[in-house]
Amino acid sequence: MYNTWEELKTACEQCEKCELCKTRHNVVVGVGSENAEVMFIGEGPGENEDLQGEPFVGRAGKLLDKMLVAVDLDRNKNIYIANIVKCRPPQNRDPKPEEQEQCIEWLRAQVKMINPKIIVCLGRIAAGRIIKSDIKITKEHGLWFEKGGIQMMAMLHPAAVLRDPRRKPDAFDDFLKLRDKINEICDHTY
Question: d(Cα 184, Cα 179) in Å, to the nearest integer?
Answer without folding.
Answer: 9
